[in-house]
Amino acid sequence: MPTKKAWVLAVDMGYGHQRAAHALLLLAKGGKAISANSYPGIPATDRKIWDTARSFYETISRFKKVPVVGDLVFALFDKFQEIQEFYPETHGIEFPTMQLKQVYGLMKKRDWGKHLIEKLNKEPSPLVTTFSTVAFMAEHWGYQGDIWLVITDTDVARAWAPLRPNMTRIRYCASTEVAAQRLERYGVPHHHIFQTGFPLPEELTLNAKEDLKRRVASLDPSLRYRKLYQELVKSYLGRVSFKTETAPLSLTFAVGGAGAQKDLASSIVKSLEHDMRDGRVQLNLVAGTRKETAAYFKELSPLANVIFAKTMEEYFHEFHKTLRKTDILWTKPSELVFYAALGIPLILASPIGSQEVRNREWVLKVGAGIDQLDPKFTHQWLFDFWENGNFAEAAMQGFVEMERGGAENITKLVLSP
């Protein structure tokens, strides 16, 4: 455990930023992350700005389900955070977006974030944040310590770089090589960009190898994958059992922080009802901290295990316990795509937003996940892929090809002299 500590900051807007911050708590002063939009003593004007932004995002995400009009409205909103195609290279030469200009406008006109930075400046240790606006606030209001910004997706929009990227002193912890290259194209100096990987919780990374040894056996009932790639499996995991598992297949479905895809769970439950009753599959429905989502899930089926907690800390603890026993994770391509590095194969729901489109492309390229097929026929295609060893292959691909040491890499960087 490091003796030197840093301020670790996130925001209560979706799980992604908080999930990354949670993995860095060993680095954080007091062992806790500061919520930039709800910390003790936050000025009412600052809280109102944050609350307005969060309400707007969650409303737009849920509104996307409205036929015809929902897609149109969301497409207009998503345009402001669009990530251009990587080629041609001229796509990197982008002017600040309207969204970015609004952030700086609120800082200049309404002193947004000034109180927070003044408070942290009383003890200017390194500042590590998982939300770009907080890093911009620190730079704008003259934070006296180093400023580190952790990228929480596989690629980044222009809004992650400040107004004058070539003059910034913000240092970036890039999740992927693509994210690092994208930041440099936006104008962020090369020496301010470090490819660290996404920070994953230590309680999962320390046990990833042993958990995958069990999972490979569960995901390969016909032994097809283990026989074909036994040397690869042995080189990374050591001796793996060639016995056929009799335990139920553990499938975990996780919705996003805005609850935008909870209705998908209904189709999954209906399709797998008989398999749950027969003990062929154990379905975990992750509601996070959303009470209304948990209630909705509990009404779907008494056979499903609902993961719900009142606080974010409790939720992460329960979610991590569930992941260790999970064979397959079904999720939209949010920050959870990085959890494939633990050897958990992914089923990818439809992406919501430009960043999730890029996340999906990245994880499919790695080979650590597959796109969902028609949820109404989950009971058919899920078990076909399982029998064929496709999920076992995806589990190994994520474990072999993806970075698991993001939290350790970031800690070393931040605390280096």
Characteristic terms for this protein:
417 residues; alpha/beta; 2 domains; Rossmann fold; 6-stranded parallel beta sheet; single chain; 18 helices; globular
How is this structure best described in words?
- The chain is an alpha/beta fold and 417 residues long.
- It folds into two domains: 7-199, Rossmann fold (3-Layer(aba) Sandwich); 202-401, Glycogen Phosphorylase B (Rossmann fold), CATH 3.40.50.2000.
- The chain contains 18 helices and twelve strands.
- The strands form two sheets. Strands 2-1-3-4-5-6 form a six-stranded parallel sheet, sandwiched between helices. A six-stranded parallel sheet has the order 9-8-7-10-11-12, sandwiched between helices.
- The chain starts with 6 loop residues before the first strand and ends with a helix.
- The mean pLDDT is 91.
- This is DUF6938 domain-containing protein.
Task: Note the topology.
Layout: E1 7-10, H1 16-22, E2 34-35, H2 44-63, H3 69-78, H4 98-110, H5 114-120, E3 127-129, H6 132-140, E4 147-150, E5 171-174, H7 177-186, E6 193-195, H8 202-205, H9 208-219, H10 224-228, H11 230-237, E7 249-254, H12 263-277, E8 281-288, H13 291-300, E9 305-308, H14 312-325, E10 328-331, E11 346-348, H15 354-366, E12 369-371, H16 378-387, H17 390-401, H18 406-415
Parallel strand pairs: 1-2, 1-3, 3-4, 4-5, 5-6, 7-8, 7-10, 8-9, 10-11, 11-12
Task: Put the structure in a nutshell.
The chain is of the alpha/beta class and 417 residues long.
